[in-house]
Here is the input.
Amino acid sequence: MAFLVFFLCGILGGVLGGMGMGGGTVLIPLLTIFCGVPQTAAQGINLVSFLPMSALALSVHAKSGLLERRGLGWIILPALLFSLLFSLLAAHIPAGMLKRGFGVFLVILSFFQFRSALKPADGPSVR
Here is the structure.
């Protein structure tokens, strides 16, 4: 039974990751809530699963012409720096605080996502 739950978590994480939405947004809560995996371990599992998933999705998106390269360096450089800083910080934060912080992040993200979904479309999407 545990295999099936992990397998379903992988499917849901892959669906979102393939669309470029960040599979960890769903994978981390699924692993902690339904699989009993500690928050820090779920984050590690997410990072390991993210590497092959993002490489494959990036390849498909690039071949489909959906990759905007302009300004990419300005996203990657600070993302790398802050990934390093906050991964070091996360290693020293109590698990409960980390879990609550991630939950608050998801609530705020959901609010903005619902708000943008209810707005009428302004025009064609940017490619």
About this structure: Helices lie at 2-18, 24-34, 39-63, 72-90, 95-118. The chain has one domain: 2-118. The CA atoms of residues 56 and 81 lie 24 Å apart.
